[in-house]
Write a structure and sequence with these properties.
The complex is a heterodimer of chains A (233) and B (357).
Chain A lengths: L9 H34 L5 H13 L2 H12 L4 H10 L7 H25 L3 H9 L4 H12 L1 H16 L3 H6 L10 H10 L3 H34 L1
Chain B lengths: L3 E8 L5 E8 L3 E5 L6 H9 L6 E6 L2 E5 L4 E2 L7 E4 L11 H11 L9 H7 L15 H13 L5 E5 L7 H18 L3 E5 L2 H7 L2 E6 L2 E6 L1 H4 L3 H5 L8 E4 L2 E5 L2 E6 L2 E5 L11 E4 L4 E4 L10 E13 L2 E7 L3 E6 L1 H6 L7 E6 L5 E3 L1
Parallel strand pairs in B: 3-9, 3-10, 7-8, 8-9
Antiparallel strand pairs in B: 1-2, 1-4, 4-5, 5-6, 10-11, 12-16, 13-14, 14-15, 16-22, 17-21, 18-19, 18-21, 19-20
Helix pairs in contact in B: 2-4, 4-5
Classes of the chains: A mainly alpha (233), B alpha+beta (357).
Chain lengths: 233, 357
């Protein structure tokens, strides 16, 4: 059901709400994995750390379309993973909303890990040792000491992933396609409009909306930074 | 049953090697040695925060580590409490939550301590709702101590607990440590490089240098060995004379030490016990005969018990009822013909003395 908002057409509204849903799910789904990865990278002294680090950062430097291509191969219904998901859970990735979420999550993953890892690195690991010496097991020490102290990094990382997911195009269009109402997020909608003859003018509204959302995300992030800085003083 | 059996060998990446065998029965033992001698590493191994390549550690009959048998208890399973040099209080929790953390998470507490009594002895009741960052250094250390105690340990480890405190505070917090030991009698092992702390608090001293055990024994014996004197960063030796009696006479503060009357600097008199008079060996002037018409107010006579020459200094131990250390130049020592058994007079300026409790 599309509400009657005078400023947005039904199509535009669909793109906006889809973008929001996709970004929300992508950032939230990626969070637990990002937290664990970031913690391991921050604390571990394993010799293969550099390898994991490079792997995590890959989506950041690869063209998103390439990332999309790889995801397509991995999750197409003919692949083992895609086939497994389809037959056991009835989940469709390619040309589906879930595909948009997956694409956005993978592309924004390195940003989230980066922010959270920084937060863990700024926390004194000796505090966790102190917790262990008081009787807390490794999981308890992580949940009660490391995680709360890295809270701000988690929020910052989530916000960054959310903002990045809102703007994701290349990987999304490869994996999820550009199906109106189903996988046409805002960037894809702008692209579609701009490709039509009279579309450039119509695209303006979505463009402005996108800029507004990006500013909003930055603003919230800045606000949180400032509040923390005041608290520190 | 021995309190602590420690037998470990470990080679660190930077080349430092630790090879130590220790058997402790004492109640309040000090691990004394210069910086970098491996003392903190030993505590870390006992607590389970690091593991030696080879070794065996037993506390109160329970085997915490036995590399030969492949047994290694994680830190949370060892009943060992740690007080850290930087207190390491959890910044996101209030003082009360910090204190109760060990109480909450330790599974097998052998000794359950009463919360109210702990905060009473350490005098931290007024701090319960505050956060660690607003506390002074001394307050943080007391909370850290309380937190370790409330986790119900069999053995308390203290890693240079007074090192990050400034001088007047050290004596204060040390007094709290002594109170804790006398109240609950939890066996304690503390690491320090300051002689003053060792002299005052410990009933057993283990001397460590370069990852090796040098000697162990009662403080009076171990601290009169030549090695500690050569440790330039060990902030010692410091003279700490235990005050037997203190009184005020005609506006002056007089302390009785070993049969001598010592005049103290003017200032508020503390009547807490125990009291110590602290001064540096460099503040002591030695004389073969007692000299009159001098500004120094305190002249203590005694016999020379030891003469130790270390890199251009001669340390002289004089028995004035308690042992007092003076440091003189080798020329002075030979001019005065200082020898063991000789009667000398020690001249102390009132200004070089400080009274600490």
């Amino acid at each position: 059901m599309t509400p009657n908002i005078p400023l947005l057409s039904a199509e535009e509204w669909a793109a906006l709400s889809l973008s929001f849903q996709v970004a929300l799910c992508a950032a939230s789904a990626g969070l637990p994995i990002a937290v664990l990865t970031a913690y391991w990278l921050a604390r571990s002294r394993s010799p293969i750390k550099w390898m994991v680090d490079a792997l995590v950062n890959l989506p950041l430097v690869m063209p998103p379309v390439v990332t999309g291509y790889l995801l397509l191969i991995c999750f197409s219904p003919r692949s083992p993973v895609g086939g497994f998901l389809a037959s056991w859970f009835g989940v469709k990735i390619v040309f589906a909303w879930t595909g948009a979420v997956l694409a956005a999550a993978v592309v924004s993953f390195p940003l989230m890990v980066r922010a959270i890892r920084l937060a863990f690195q700024q926390t004194d690991p000796r505090l966790e040792s102190a917790a262990r010496s008081l009787g807390a097991g490794p999981l308890t020490a992580f949940l009660t000491i490391a995680l709360p102290l890295a809270k701000r990094g988690l929020i910052a990382g989530w916000l960054l992933a959310f903002a990045r997911s809102l703007g994701e195009f290349g990987a999304t269009i490869m994996v999820a396609g550009n199906i109106s109402g189903q996988t046409r997020t805002m960037p894809l909608a702008v692209f579609s409009l701009a490709n039509r003859a009279e579309g450039m003018d119509q695209a303006w509204r979505l463009v402005l909306l996108s800029i507004l959302l990006a500013c909003l995300a930055l603003g919230v992030s800045e606000l949180l930074e400032r509040r923390h800085a005041v608290h520190q003083r | 049953m021995s309190l602590l059996e420690f037998e470990c060998q470990h080679l660190y990446p930077d080349g430092f090697s630790l090879d130590l065998r220790l058997n402790l029965e004492a109640h309040f033992a000090a691990l004394f040695g210069p910086s970098g001698s491996g003392k903190s590493s030993i505590l870390s191994m006992i607590a389970g925060l690091t593991s030696p390549k080879e070794g065996r550690i037993c506390v109160a009959g329970q085997t915490l580590l036995d590399t030969a048998a492949g047994r290694c208890l994680p830190p949370e399973a060892r009943n060992v409490g740690v007080v850290f040099q930087d207190s390491l209080l959890f910044p996101h929790l209030t003082v009360e939550s910090n204190l109760r953390y060990g109480e909450r998470w330790r599974k097998h507490k052998r000794r359950a301590l009463d919360f109210a009594r702990v905060i009473d002895v350490l005098e931290i009741a007024a701090l319960l709702d505050r956060y660690p960052e607003g506390l002074s250094g001394g307050e943080q250390q007391r909370v850290g101590l309380g937190r370790a105690l409330l986790s119900g340990p069999e053995l308390l480890l203290m890693d240079e607990p007074l090192a990050s405190l400034d001088a007047p505070l050290k004596a204060r917090v040390l007094a709290y440590l002594e109170r804790v030991v006398s109240e609950w009698g939890i066996p304690t092992l503390f690491v320090t490089h300051a002689q003053a702390e060792v002299r005052r608090a410990a009933d057993w001293v283990v001397l460590i240098e370069n990852g090796r055990l040098l000697a162990d024994g009662i403080p009076e014996e171990v601290l009169t060995r030549p090695e500690p004197l050569g440790w330039t960063d060990s902030a010692g030796p410091v003279n700490l004379l235990r005050v037997e009696e203190i009184e005020e006479q005609a506006g002056l503060a007089i302390a009785r030490v070993g049969g001598h009357r010592i005049q103290l600097p003017a200032g508020p008199l503390s009547h807490r016990s125990p009291l110590f008079i602290q001064f540096s060996p460099a503040a002591v002037v030695l004389s073969r005969n007692d000299v009159k018409d001098l500004s120094s107010r305190n002249h203590l006579t005694g016999q020379v018990r030891q003469l130790i020459q270390i890199s251009g200094d001669v340390f002289v131990a004089v028995d004035v009822g308690q042992i007092l250390w003076a440091v003189v130049t080798p020329e002075a020592a030979s001019d005065l013909e200082l020898a063991i058994g000789l009667e000398v007079t020690c001249l102390l300026k009132v200004h070089s003395l400080s009274l600490i409790d």
